[in-house]
Design brief:
Structural class: alpha/beta
Number of helices: 7
CATH class: Alpha Beta
Helix content: 25-40%
Strand content: 5-15%
Radius of gyration: 17 Å
Distance between the termini: 60 Å
Order of helices and strands: EHEHEHHEHEHH
CATH superfamily: HUPs
Strand order of the largest sheet: 3-2-1-4-5
Length: about 230
């Protein structure tokens, strides 16, 4: 009698709402989740790791990787990793914002690909959002598709990895509704770029999240210092 092969998905999980929803969607499709989290000396590293651990436990994850990438701090060039650069709080900026971390998703996907090949996973899931995001170039669908092609060219012939980006065309309000549908523990997720206690409510990420909940007609279960209309 043949043993049924387990389908595995490597899920890049920051502890945020988007990547958590992506992981829950993969689990609903019958995948065993391999959870991957990156510490890269970001301002809210401790809080994000705490959220990731709690979410992984809720998902009943059996295999997880927490990887330290301290070179991002040396690289700087982003308000998320360089404390000498202020996190903007005046509303969404035009163009690529100062919170963009150079090639972060490319590096994350490359490392996730190595894990996927080692673990025999057929899929990598990433919670990128192109339509209603902060203008990050590494969140674009065309870029993620190009990375998928590069990964499959650079791995063993028998390795065939698909990168799933199930939220890429959703707005934040639609993400909130989908998260409720999949029973995502939104109270365990974190989006704030600045704070690790109460979310600031005024950085780009908080504004996008709060607006998504407001448009969806749902109250955000996490606490904020300030809530801007």
């Amino acid at each position: 009698m043949k043993t049924r092969q387990v389908k595995k998905a490597v899920c890049i999980m920051s502890g945020g709402m988007d990547s958590t929803l992506a992981a829950y969607m993969m689990k609903s499709c019958g995948y065993e989740i391999i959870a991957v989290h990156f510490n890269y000396d970001q301002r809210t590293q401790k809080k994000e790791l705490e959220c990731f651990e709690a979410i992984a436990q809720k998902l009943d994850v059996k295999e997880k990787y927490v990887l330290d990438l301290d070179f991002f701090k040396q690289l700087g060039a982003s308000a998320l990793t360089d404390t000498s650069i202020d996190v903007p709080t005046g509303g969404v900026e035009e163009g690529v914002p100062v919170t963009y971390v150079p090639f972060r998703n490319g590096i994350f996907l490359s490392m996730a690909a190595a894990i996927a090949e080692k673990e025999g996973a057929e899929l990598i899931a990433i919670g990128v959002v192109e339509e209603d995001s902060s203008g990050y170039p590494d969140c674009r669908e065309a870029y993620i598709t190009a990375m998928q092609n590069a990964i499959n060219l650079g791995t063993k012939d028998e390795t065939n990895i698909t990168i799933e980006m199930p939220l890429v065309h959703l707005k934040k309000s639609e993400i909130v509704k989908e998260a409720l549908k999949y029973d995502v523990p939104l109270e365990l997720t974190w989006s704030c770029y600045k704070n690790e206690d109460a979310a600031c409510g005024v950085c780009d990420s908080c504004r996008l999240r709060l607006n998504g909940f407001n448009v969806a007609g749902v109250k955000d279960p996490i606490s904020y210092e300030t809530e801007v209309d």
